[in-house]
Amino acid sequence: NDHATTAAEPFRPAGLGDAEGPGTVHIRKLVKSFGPHTVLRDINIDIASGEVCVLIGPSGSGKSTVLRCIDGLEQIDSGVLKVNGEHLGYAEEATHYRPLPRAELRRQRTQIGMVFQSFNLFPNMTALENITVGQTLIKRTSKSNAKKRAKELLAQVGLEGHDAHYPAQLSGGQQQRVAIARSLAMDPQVMLFDEPTSALDPELVGDVLDVIKQLADDGMTMLVTTHEMGFAREVADSLLFMADGYIVERGDPREVLASPREPRTQQFLKKVL
Ligand code: ADP
Ligand code: MG
């Protein structure tokens, strides 16, 4: 079961509360299976507006699946999943689902930004085009406004003057910063980062983490999976450790990293710290 809900702090354990409205995530009893394989058994997470939540856990524990559910890329089996105060993809709670029309799910999804480990930029488009395409096609922004915004975002991620570069002409760290800018161009209220620096050479990690940290300082609500424990300690409001389909431990990142209570967390941290 979700140990943390029964553990020490009875009033407000980290990552649990009653997050509601724009820029929030609210997950209760989330269950998700792939065929016979139940990956998420009972996930409970709240992220309040402006909070940074870091999710850690062994490979295969379901971290990406949690993010993909929150981004509407996976349908959940049961539970409550509200993003920005709305039941994601459904008209009511999952116990009596009524799927929303695709256009409505698409509208909800534009308010959620997702950044993947593998960047996933459009290889045949320049950095600028990667950032304008969603604005013009989905948000119906005019070409000139989209371009203006793209240039601002490139500057924000430290890539001023890289408009005309194709992904193949950029380093991994630069590509990931373009991917972040592309995501931000949709004006999301929640940002999801799935191991955003795991594919990068060590010397390129810092620039990407700095961009994410700046976003956090600016008040973006975010959920980040990462193996960068320094980042978790410095930036996260709450740290969640997941294993076997549950959030096994949660708390202030400094406390969890310094003195994990659960043996599972202790074993995991011994390997990564
Ligand atoms: P993590 O991100 O923590 O490494 P994942 O969420 O990627 O874990 O995967 C959790 C489990 O779900 C793994 O056993 C993985 O093989 C399985 N899984 C993930 N996506 C799918 C899928 N589309 N179909 C079948 N199994 C999947
Ligand atoms: Mg993953």
TrEMBL record:
One annotated GO molecular function: ATP binding
Alphabetized PROSITE patterns for the sequence: ABC_TRANSPORTER_1, ABC_TRANSPORTER_2
Superkingdom classification of source: Bacteria
Stretches the record annotates as Disordered: 1-20
InterPro entries: AAA+_ATPase (IPR003593), ABC_ATPase_HisP-typ (IPR030679), ABC_transporter-like_ATP-bd (IPR003439), ABC_transporter-like_CS (IPR017871), MetN_ABC_transporter-like (IPR050086), P-loop_NTPase (IPR027417)
All copies of domain ABC transporter, residue ranges: 25-269
Membrane topology of the entry: Peripheral membrane protein
Subcellular location: Cell membrane
CDD domains: ABC_HisP_GlnQ
Alphabetical UniProt keywords: Amino-acid transport, ATP-binding, Cell membrane, Membrane, Nucleotide-binding, Transport
Family named by the database record: Belongs to the ABC transporter superfamily.
Designated name of the protein: Amino acid ABC transporter ATP-binding protein
Source organism of the structure: Flexivirga alba
